[in-house]
Amino acid sequence: MNTETEPSATKTTAIETTKVSKPRIATGKVVSDKADKTIVVLVSRKVKHPVVGKYVIRSTKLMAHDEKNESRIGDTVTIREHRPISKRKTWMLDKIIDRDLAEEISS
User: Fold this and answer.
1) Measured between alpha carbons, how far is 38 from 9 in angstroms, rounded to an integer?
2) Beta strands 38-48; 89-98: pairing state
3) Do 64 and 41 contact (CB within 8 A), yes or no?
4) Are 48 and 55 in contact (CB under 8 A)?
5) 105: helix, strand or coil
6) Rounded to the nearest 5 degrees, what angle is found at the Cα of 50, between the Cα atoms of 48 and 52?
7) pLDDT tier at 23, thresholds 50, 70, 90
8) pTM score, two decimals?
9) 3-state class of 68 per DSSP?
10) Cα–Cα distance between 68 and 105 in angstroms, integer?
11) Residue 74: which of 44, 37, 104, 36 has the closest Cα?
12) Tell me, what's the pLDDT at 9?
């Protein structure tokens, strides 16, 4: 008789856990919607100046994917980080918070 134990029965397999991080979310104002399915969002933040101590407004322009072309210039939107869609476009439109009424009236 064969009294050997099978090696696969005695081995324990390690369960691999992958860390899934929450996507970063940013809120800003749409400054350009000229490209098809792309918007440029100006995200502003306040940072304390290291020497003077006053708060200074810093801003960043982020390109975001707008699948339905639903946002317009002046809208306040929320965007979330996404896989790279192009060289500079790694954000996606999440929702429109506030519509700019001046743009709708003039149209």
Assistant:
1) 55
2) unpaired
3) yes
4) yes
5) helix
6) 85
7) confident
8) 0.75
9) coil
10) 21
11) 104
12) 57
Is the confidence at residue 66, as pLDDT, over 70?
A: yes
Alpha-carbon distance of 40 to 43, in angstroms, equals 10
Domains and CATH numbers, the chain: 22-106 (2.40.50.140)
pLDDT at 102: 74
Average pLDDT over residues 37-59: 97
Backbone angles phi, psi at 34, to 5 degrees: -75, -35
The SS3 assignment for 74 reads: coil
pLDDT reported for residue 103: 62
* CA–CA dist 65, 93 (Å, integer): 6
pLDDT digits (tens, 9 = 90+) for 67-91: 999 999 999 999 999 999 999 999 9
- Please state, in angstroms and as integers, the Cα–Cα distance from residue 67 to each residue in 33, 37, 40, 52, 99, following that order: 12, 5, 14, 43, 17
